[in-house]
Amino acid sequence: MTVHANDAHPYPIYNSRFRVIFPILDADGDLVTAAAGLDSEASQDSGTFTDVTNEATEIATSSGMYYLDPISTEMDTTSSTVIVKTSTAGAKTTPLTLHPVRLPVIRTGTSQAGAATTITLDSGASALNDFYNGCYINITNDIPANVLGQCRKITDYDGGTKVATVPTWGTNPSLSSTFEILVPPELHGIMIA
Hints:
Blueprint: E1 20-23, E2 39-44, E3 50-51, E4 57-58, E5 65-68, E6 80-85, E7 94-98, E8 105-110, E9 113-115, E10 118-120, E11 136-139, E12 151-153, E13 156-158, E14 163-165, E15 178-182, H1 188-191
Antiparallel strand pairs: 1-5, 2-3, 2-6, 4-5, 6-7, 8-15, 9-10, 10-14, 11-12, 11-15, 13-14
């Protein structure tokens, strides 16, 4: 599954893609560069560890810092425990535990259109400018292929056109993409009564 840097969020969101960044260290606590034979596995809600869809990848060249991109179906849990193993001599297994946050859903629908940095909400969406600003929009189906679980923060909303502006999508949504609008913690007192 294609991943994108904009899948990184301040915290993991339930049923959304997420980019987690971490070091791989040796026994002395030094960064391990160019770790070989990377093997990433996850345990969902304390279940059996299984391979994840995307493998850990080193950031830039010889940084010793890596990222992993769990997909939406790997983030539909209360907790996801990840281990990243490497065959590099002296390197230690890196454990990570993610607790996806279930954000309140204030709207669901089917988009009317999508582009690189926008999505047009359904015709019944709010007519007020900026109404959804600061909320997240999460794509809940896979039409077109590879849009499922892309979650972006809405930076601007035009109530007249129903167009929400977001950071660049990895794959543009289309007129058949379904979505949910989620309220982050910092807006709970404003958006939810």
